[in-house]
Amino acid sequence: MMKVVGIIPARYNSTRFPGKPLAMINGKTMIRRVCEQAWKSKLDAVVVATDDMRIADEVLTFGGQYVLTKPNHQSGTDRCCEAMEILEEKYDAVINIQGDEPFIDPRQINVLIDLISQEDTQLASLAKRIDDEEELFSANSVKVVMDNEGKALYFSRNPIPYLRNVAREQWLDKCDFYQHVGIYAYKAAILRQVATMQPSRLELAESLEQLRWLENGLSIKMAVTDSVNVSVDIPSDLLKVEHLARTQTLYRG
Q: pTM for the whole thing?
């Protein structure tokens, strides 16, 4: 039986929102809410990977598990890899759970557990069909195209595929487009491999880390989900997640 750990990278000194994991959302810190959602999934363990004892102390107050990692990681992937190696318990696969999505749907985590448990899966992630024109053409919304087996072919901040000789306002009627949902699963050996890779030309062009993996010949198996998790990037985003906590029924497990 494959053992899968969920690792939540949570650094303190975020450029746009220092101390973000400790931000309060309706009486609970953000990092606590992420952990509580992850606990509702089929993960064998949930671990917070942090570089700051303030976050570590908060994790202890609600009975969570943490590891202290170096402060100078370039990405959450690198922090996940260090955390995996620190853990005494050894796992077959890792799911990188975003620490700024306090209401992540645990059913999405379960989908990734099922995908990464397949023998031929190296990495896995999620996508959602786009039904909004603004989202389709926004550079902040990452798009993905997949092959007939559901493996990612390419990710871009531009709409892909490009529809030649079709007016922009008709694109959604003529083709299916997918937004990438930024949660990843890795086989343990693959996570070690990607943590040693240097930034690639496509990654630097689009500012998308996952292109480094494709450019180095790895495959990313995708599954389609029907929702995108709300993330907190800046302090003003707290208002929308507080409203979500008050007004919507969240998945309870």
A: 0.93
